[in-house]
Amino acid sequence: MEYLKLLGIVIIVVGFALKWDTTAVVVIAAIVTGLFAGMSIPDLLHTLGQSFLDNRMVSLFFLTLPMIGLVESHGLKQVAVEAIQKLKRLTPGRILNLYVIIRALANVFGISLSGQVQFVRPLIQPMVQAAAGQHRQLTPAEVDLTKGRSAAVDNLGNFFAQNLFVASGGVLLIASTMKSLGKPVSAMSIVIASIPVAITMLVVTIIYNTLFDRRFRADNSKGGHK
Amino acid sequence: MVNNLLIALYALIGAMMALAAIESFRDRSNPARFGTGTFWTFLAIIFAFGDFIPATVVGTMLVIIGVLALARQIKVGHLPAVNVQNATAAAHRLGGWIFLPSIVLAVVSIIIAQFTSLGGQVGIGIGALVSLIVAIVMTRTSGKQVYSDTQRMVRSVGAPGVLPQLLATLGAVFTAAGVGTLTAKLIAGVFPAGNQFGGVVLYCVAMAVFTAIMGNAFAAFAVITAAIGVPFVIAQGGNVAVVAAIGMTSGYCGTLMTPMAANFNSLPVALMEMDDEMGVIRQQAPVAIILLVLQIGLMYFLAF
């Protein structure tokens, strides 16, 4: 019967996979785990409440929202768009490489723009497509490729540099979870431990994008792509 | 000192959530405005008065929030849009200075975390306040605008914004229920603990696979770190910060390869009207696999 308390894990996995409401799934998983572990209902409510209170630090990032809202309504996006537009006349790979560096740097300062909506769709992908089509007409499959690659580069720059900001959701979640698991660790040391991965991501992405340019060279016009 | 400062910072978050509650109740266009308003009211109470009310009450509120979520009664509703004309005018006036508050936030938080005894959490709070003051002075904005932007941001973050804290809570419940020790025992039956490299591979791959199944690395982190990361890597002498940090980013490799992470992998397909539904994942998969292998190496060499 001891294994029944693992049902909480099953609920989390299945619930997230089937896209049930995430808040509900997590609360239900916690209740089920507690009940099958033999907690009484008052005990369970106490554990749940106390754990939530102990983990309030994860939500400290809410304090940064007023400032972010303010700079957003005063042209943060507009300034960034103008700066990126100055990158015209580069190869597709170089545009993507500059973008991934800008995205990573923005993350260091906690500026998390919704990249796909605000930058990739209106700005980066059209620039990449234009640069790729400088020498010859692109096939529809190649246009699709520039779209997929632009979105991919945004995700890469976003994911692997996020934890370089001390008040990011990821860093606070890691610090708080490790405290819950009895292995406390400071948010700052998480940030430092995330640096090698961010650098690795940048190096791999830059090589990957540099290889991307080969597809679009003038002499690669016939049958050079799969 | 640190604790009192933190209580004050949490109270401030509570106040921000109270604004979101008021505006959610007032949003008549939202069919779920009472549920959403209740959601923010409970959170406001928990953050503002958490240290003075019994934990059982907090737990009860969480259960009610779970019921509201299950009944789909928590919705963002109608948010005031950013005025593009004003934003563009401000962009021309401010130029690159618009980034100053964000830089102030990062620098102040790090300085307080590193060079004072107040710690990183208080650092974030003070950094946020100082950067807000810088932003207000720089944009010469009105209190009304600050109010409007604050409630807009808090409400747009919505229930997903509290998800990380809920997942950390789940991690704590798992620990209290002994889930980690049980899964460790189960896995140890198949996979002997004690091999450092084997443990690292198991943890990183499990993070990626479970993240791919669930579509969410944060959820996978609480579960897999309790079940595998702690017993198979940290208990073998691995450095906690390195193991946890790289464990999380190993999970992100799973995010890159799964259609479950719709926000990242399906949204761009729709936004850009791509022919290939898996086009984004196809571009990401090779990098994801390379990064996972490299991270296994990094964790092994840096943690031990």
Structure overview:
Chain B: It holds the Pfam family DUF979. Chain B: Keywords: Membrane, Transmembrane, Transmembrane helix. The complex is a heterodimer of chains A (226) and B (304). Chain A has 226 residues and is mostly helical. Chain A has 2 domains: 2-54, no CATH class; 61-220, no CATH class. In chain A, 69% of the residues lie in helices and 0% in strands. Chain A has helices spanning 7-17, 22-36, 41-54, 65-73, 76-85, 92-108, 115-132, 140-162, 169-180, 187-212. By secondary structure, chain B is mostly helical. Chain B has a domain at 178-303. Chain B has 14 helices and no strands. Chain B has helices at 2-26, 33-49, 55-70, 84-94, 100-115, 119-139, 143-177, 179-190, 196-214, 217-233, 240-256, 262-265, 267-271, 279-303. In chain B, helix 1 (2-26) packs across helix 7, helix 2 (33-49) packs antiparallel against helix 3 and helix 11 (240-256) packs antiparallel against helix 14 (279-303). The radius of gyration of chain B is 22 Å and the shape is globular. Chain B starts with a helix and ends with a helix. The mean pLDDT of chain B is 90. The chains are: A mainly alpha (226), B mainly alpha (304). Chains A and B meet through helix 1, helix 2, helix 3, helix 4 and helix 5 of A and helix 1, helix 3, helix 4, helix 5 and helix 6 of B.
